[in-house]
Specification:
The protein is α/β, with parallel strands linked by helices and 187 residues long. It is built from 7 helices and 7 strands. Helix 1 crosses helix 6, helix 2 packs parallel to helix 4 and helix 6 packs antiparallel against helix 7. The two termini are 28 Å apart.
Amino acid sequence: MYIIVGLGNPGREYNGTRHNVGYEVIDALADKANISVIEKKHKSIIGKGMLGGQKCILAKPTTYMNLSGEAVREMVDYYKIDEESELIVISDDVSLDVGRIRIRKKGSAGGHNGLRNIILHLGHEKFIRVRMGVGEKPAGWDLADYVLGKISGPEKEMLHTSAKQAAEAICTIIEKGADEAMNLYNA
């Protein structure tokens, strides 16, 4: 069984922001696999179904970004999965160009508070993550204002397209493994 967690912030005011691209990937996966993500459980909104022939939980934590580890820890404990190979976390990344994705099997939080909190709650950095590029913040901008800002214009379409590509990459992780997905999707 896989737990696939898209990081973001709950609430309408955060829809369409750079910080919520993880939620958008969960929506793309849900559409692809016809999974309803509507059940409130484990400090998240979740959906259960099949992806790539495997049972999966799609999750959008409702703990807000900086406390994402609470929801992840609760799900990992409840479903008793192998964190290193069956947990996939999707997050935004300001160090990647808009629309780029990067898959890693382990690593630091890279300045991302949601990932930092997950690492804190798991006690290690060894879990698969799909990082979604949202572009570098403009000079003089506050980072929080940038990642919580609404996406518009060509960037919005690029992020929508990359969310679908990330959904494909996650299916590849499930079907063929993270190494194969990294070879195919890490440009």
